[in-house]
Amino acid sequence: MTDKTILVTGTASGIGRETALLAAAEGAACVICLDVHDENNEATAHELTKMGARAIPLHVDLGNVDQIRAAFARVSAECGRLDASAHIGGFSWRGETLDVTVELWEQVMNVNLRGTFFCCQEALRIMYPQKSGAIVNMSADAAFHPIYGFALQAAGKGGIVHMTKTLALEAAPRGVRVNVISPGIVRTQKAGAERPFQPALQREQSPPDDAAARLADQTAIGRYIAMEEVARAFLFLCSDYSSGVNGDLMFVNGGGYPTLDY
Ligand SMILES: NC(=O)c1ccc[n+]([C@@H]2O[C@H](COP(=O)([O-])OP(=O)(O)OC[C@H]3O[C@@H](n4cnc5c(N)ncnc54)[C@H](O)[C@@H]3O)[C@@H](O)[C@H]2O)c1
Asked: How far apart are alpha carbons 113 and 205 in whole angstroms?
């Protein structure tokens, strides 16, 4: 990532934050951080600055297309280029289909699917004229393997996968690559921790500690995936090391899909 300019969404916590920090550790010159949680996003930016990178934290609600467009316009104006754009911000929603209101549908789909689409569109606006760039989107196991209570989540994260593969066909002749990652279970928050910017979960999303141990046993790898393992995959697909990889889906789940029995 030496001297690259990279934009990451969801940088206030979890995998997005980890990816931003790893980008700086790998030599990125400028990391643009998009998140709706300003205080934590500023803290990430502060860490990046201490590591020697230029950090630009921007308040963006990924459910708001005007805010997405304004953020990428600032990137264009202030940086003049964008080498990589990692669209990680978002959330999981788990619950019964009969509990899904139109408002909830819009909240989940607008942030996860629509937000990802318009981040891609804005990144392409900058990358096409420079004839280079890499975009990496975020999916989830629920898109590939039926998990109880994830019908709405599967629709959004499944949409991201097929959208990515289709978009790659448009982007390839213009020198831009678009790929997508699906991580396994990554424990980014303590069980029951408040997640202020996502709709109330109908089911407890993080398993209680006894179920957590069982859950890890059910995975092929026998443990949770670490945030850094997902961040490394993002940076591989953002970097020139993956120059021949386009329209691809990378699983970072240690092999196979777990069954959520909580
Ligand atoms: N943790 C897992 O096991 C797992 C598994 C599969 C996929 N994912 C995906 O990984 C991504 C990151 O999740 P995480 O596990 O790091 O969780 P996280 O809650 O730690 O991080 C999510 C980040 O996205 C931000 N965000 C949420 N809504 C937003 C909005 N409307 N606008 C802007 N920013 C918003 C949050 O503020 C937070 O910084 C999500 O898209 C999630 O669906 C996570």
From this structure: 20
Going along the chain from its start, the domains and CATH numbers come out as 5-252 (3.40.50.720)
Phi, psi torsion values for 60, nearest 5 degrees: -140, 125
Cα(20) to ligand 1 centroid in Å equals 14
* Residue 183 alpha carbon to ligand 1 centre in Å: 12
* 34-to-9, 16, 167, 168 alpha-carbon distances in Å: 5, 9, 22, 23
18 CA closest ligand 1 atom index: 16
48 near 24, Cβ under 8 Å? yes
Q: pLDDT per residue over 196-242, tens digit each?
A: 556 666 555 666 667 667 777 778 888 889 999 999 999 999 999 99
Residues with CB under 6 A from ligand 1: 10, 12-16, 35-37, 60-63, 88-92, 111, 138, 140, 183, 185-186, 188-189, 195, 197-198
Per residue in 163-205, pLDDT (tens digit) is 999 999 999 999 999 999 999 888 876 444 555 556 666 555 6
Q: Can you tell me the distance from the alpha carbon of 178 to that of 14, in angstroms, rounded to the nearest whole number?
A: 22
